[in-house]
Amino acid sequence: MSTPRPTRIGFATIGQSPRDDAVPAIVAALGRPVEVVEAGGLDGLDAAAIAAMAPQAGEYSFATRMADGSQVVLGKPAAEVRLAKVMEHLDGQQLDIVVALCAGTQIPPLKNALLIEPQRIVDGLTEAIAANARRIGIVLPLERQLASFHLEAEVAAEVQLAHASPYEGDRFAEAGRELAGCDVIVMHCMGYTEAMRAKVATASGRPTLAAPALVAGVLRQLIDMPATA
């Protein structure tokens, strides 16, 4: 009986790599060895270049993580340009799967690796739950994101929003209390950890889902290849 080689997974972030706040937990949840390659849109950039990527007036904003753990806020167009370069680079690394560690970005299709877009996974599940709920809560990283966030699909449920950054401060209990009247809560960012999810769940008393765990569940089944004789 031969054992399949470890799946090679690339993780792309709009921030800096390695994402030791997110990738190790996802990999641990897979239940089997994998080979990991990481790359980030801000890798190799100096402070001036990163500052130039700040949101312009009217642009949607993304919060992401620097290698030192600090938060940086980027404008959507600039972040997507850098992310496209990262994805192209990873697609040439003989990987089986490439995971984008961000939600809300437009990602170009890959030629070689299977692309996993957390945005589609998280939004799809959120919309499925919201279709049969009275009220669904969504936690976003930045307060400024609340005004422009919307679900693509029409749902009957009321959508209630709160914010708590995974990279700066600790607003999770407060966000949980704000969403305590919801049927279920979805934490809509790949930077949220299990500890953060637990804080929201405890404060709200409501079932709470975090984006990284949802993506890890999909990955776990994708790499579940049995040994062959």
TrEMBL record:
Domain of life: Bacteria
Name used for this protein in its record: AroM family protein
